[in-house]
Amino acid sequence: MSEIDELIKRIEELRWNVIKTKEGRAYTDPAVVAASQELDNVLDRYQEMLMKKAENG
Question: What is the tally of structural domains in the chain?
């Protein structure tokens, strides 16, 4: 599995984690914010990889 594929899988896992963590909590709840930030970090890495791949052809 390529690194991009691994990131896509991780993004899906973290996305579901945010959804599950959000249940019964406000968006500003520290647990929801932490889960969302973790997802954001992985999304940033994914975007960087796509940009590098596009630059390299």
Answer: 1
Distance between CA atoms of residues 57 and 51, nearest Å = 10
From residue 28, give the alpha-carbon distance in Å to each of 23, 25, 44: 12, 8, 21
DSSP 10-34: HHHHHHHHHHHHHTTS-TTSHHHHH
Q: How confident is the model over 8-51, as pLDDT tens digits?
A: 999 999 999 999 999 999 999 999 999 999 999 999 999 999 99
Q: Say what the pTM is.
A: 0.90
Q: Residue 18's domain spans which residues? A: 3-56
Tokens 């992985």 belong to residue: 42
